[in-house]
Amino acid sequence: MSAPNTNTERQARRHKPALWGIIIAIVAAGLFILWALLNDGTPLDEQAAGAPPAATETGTAAEVETPEETN
């Protein structure tokens, strides 16, 4: 049994802010999930520096010589 005095136009008007909030929350969650799937976890400073030096057959990447800084 339904309520005898229903004003569906007023109910629709009162529910619009809640519906917009739900839509915004779903979009934000979708964007976060997309970002989480595409993010490889590399810190931004390492992304800007580029790829680390490649390892050689005889040593590791840490043993690769780097140019000396001149003062």
Automatic annotation (TrEMBL):
The keyword Membrane applies. Residues 44-71 are annotated as: Disordered. This is Uncharacterized protein. It comes from Gymnodinialimonas ceratoperidinii. Residues 48-64 have a biased composition (Low complexity). Keywords: Membrane, Transmembrane, Transmembrane helix. The chain crosses the membrane at residues 18-38.
